[in-house]
Amino acid sequence: MAAQIAYIINNLTVGGAEKLLLSTVKKLNKEKYDITVCPMFKENALLNDFQRTGVKVRCLNMYNKRDIRGLFKLYQFFKSHKIDIVHTHLLEADTFGRFAAIWAKVPIIITTTHSVDSWKLNNRRFRTKFRLFLNRIADKHSNAIITVSDYIKNYLIEHEKTDPKKIHVIKNGIEIQKNKKPSIDKHKQETIVLGCVGRLFEEKGFGYLLRAFKKAQNQHPNLKLLIAGDGPLRAELEKLAYELGVSSDTEFMGVLDDIPTFLNKLDIFVLSSIQEGIPLGLLEAMAAGKPIVATKVGGIPEVVDNGSDGILVAAANVTELNEAIVSLIQDERKRKEMGRNARRKVVDFFNLDKAVRQLEDLYEKLLENQSIPSTIQSEYI
After folding, report:
1. From CA 227, how far away is CA 71, in angstroms rounded?
2. What structural domains and CATH numbers belong to the chain?
3. How does pLDDT run across 270-282, given as a tens digit for each residue?
4. pTM of the model
């Protein structure tokens, strides 16, 4: 019989972790795994997308992260459905999901760490210390801790004293159509279009991008900036664009369903984050054959080879960001060469099929160690 897997995640909004989980459950072998996705909160814009994959979705409808009923709901679900694997994503889901799994004596507990959360960096606060305390207890009872980059793995080992034997690096991947050539720009040739995809949160550093765009536009007036994504900082960023005098050439496009069409409009993809894991938007831009300007934080240097498929700059440094953008504006040949290299990199090393194979291999290894037969194993019993 198929192994019972429950994925616990904060919600099903349009974010990197949520999109990664959606792509993963589409690809997982449904004959080997019976999958239920459990979003904890009520923001579930991707609910229909998950349901169309054929997996079950069980919404917990928690009011907030202090709604302790979620712990009991998960415990009851794990026990009644005899869940074999609990796999959690994102902070609240990591805490509620793993402690409910420990309580229910679920055989296999896994978490994926997508980035070094900002709260961990402020370790003087009591709340942070308490969260870290809970996290270490949950880690101790987890069978595997997946990280999406070597940077995160090393951080967990050095700063959180995580057992290295439990950590498995499975880098993010995206689905790539075979033999698909990089897209061709359709905007007017005399205009250079910069763009980025991401939620409008502080850690994405969009304020630095707007300031660098202003400096670049002083040298090259024929620039446009497109930002795909939404979030709590949208009004603040729109105000900043107005104050900088670039609002007429900056478009905040909100959440987009068709990212490939958006990327098709860009000449240069710019990522100004001050902390990251391995962002899917970056991989999607590289797969579209776009040259990259990005900050050298988190797992980004594991993806972008400085000088080959993009230019890496220091985080929170408007001058370096501007200089990198201007250097690509002035060199069309370099833009095209970097775009070709970027696509080749993603096709070879960051495709979704590879990531899903690694995940299934981990599941099978853990199931075998726990003597829980998967469908393939049971065929020979």
Report:
1. 37
2. 3-173+351-378 (3.40.50.2000), 192-349 (3.40.50.2000)
3. 999 999 999 999 9
4. 0.91
